[in-house]
Write a structure and sequence with these properties.
Oligomer: single chain
Number of helices: 8
Number of domains: 1
Distance between the termini: 15 Å
Helix content: over 70%
Number of strands: 0
Low-confidence stretches: 1-6
Order of helices and strands: HHHHHHHH
Strand content: under 5%
Mean pLDDT: 84
Radius of gyration: 20 Å
Length: 242
């Protein structure tokens, strides 16, 4: 078995995974508590109990950004070393980022439907943050489409790594900088109060705990994917050498 497979996961992986799962259990319990039981949320105007989506929707975008950064780091490492393991790590980090990005977009669409567009049939209104997020997802979707068009594994890894670095450069602009310069219904844009101004401190405590938890959860998914891809690559190499 490839040595890189065992290097993909720390020795105390099971303990870390258990801690993360317990952490997320408490986050979910806190986010769903109602009727004064445990951590009830304050009444936020218009949002009401849909404000609980803050604990899921926004952390998913933080998680996507963290995973795209990790993916770009290993893309850079691959261009430096041509180590196939760096390509495996980069590819799987991008995959996890894409999954969380799509999840963030879907939870945002549902949230908007039952707050901003309540009483209408509108699900999508090209709000700048929604549109920029959709573009970001398409950029990383194109990353995998690009990989699927190349037959030479080394050429695929090299071109994908270069594309990945350019894709990562767009992340802060599309998900943060540009949307804040345009009129939007999202908090913090064009005179709209930020969530820190309209939410109770207890909500921010749960929110930050959720951000940490979701990023940690993505690390579990990422390491599992790396182990699977590394094992598949090892088995394929063995078959080719038989």
């Amino acid at each position: 078995m490839s040595k890189s497979l065992f290097n993909a996961v720390p020795r105390n992986y099971k303990t870390i995974r258990l801690i993360i799962l317990i952490w997320m259990t408490f986050v979910i319990m806190a986010s769903l508590s109602v009727g004064g039981i445990w951590l009830n949320i304050p009444n936020v105007e218009m949002l009401e109990h849909t404000a609980r989506n803050l604990y899921f929707h926004v952390p998913m975008w933080f998680t996507m950004m963290a995973m795209t950064a990790l993916s770009a780091f290993y893309a850079f490492r691959y261009l430096q070393t041509r180590n196939p393991m760096s390509d495996i790590r980069s590819r799987n980090a991008a995959l996890i980022a894409l999954v969380f990005g799509i999840s963030g977009l879907m939870t945002g669409i549902i949230w908007a439907r039952y707050t901003w567009y309540e009483g209408t049939n509108i699900w999508w209104n090209f709000d700048p943050k929604q549109s920029m997020a959709a573009v970001q997802i398409l950029i990383y979707g194109a990353y995998f489409a690009l990989r699927g068009t190349l037959d030479d594994p080394q050429k695929e890894a090299r071109i994908a790594a270069v594309y990945n670095l350019f894709a990562f450069v767009t992340v802060p602009f599309l998900l943060y900088v540009l949307p804040r310069q345009l009129e939007s219904l999202h908090p913090g844009s064009e005179g709209n109060p930020a969530f820190s101004e309209i939410t109770d401190p207890i909500m921010r405590i749960v929110f930050y705990a959720s951000v940490v938890g979701f990023i940690a959860l993505s690390w579990i998914f990422y390491t599992q994917r790396v182990r699977l891809s590394s094992t598949s690559a090892t088995l394929k190499s063995i078959e080719e050498n038989l």
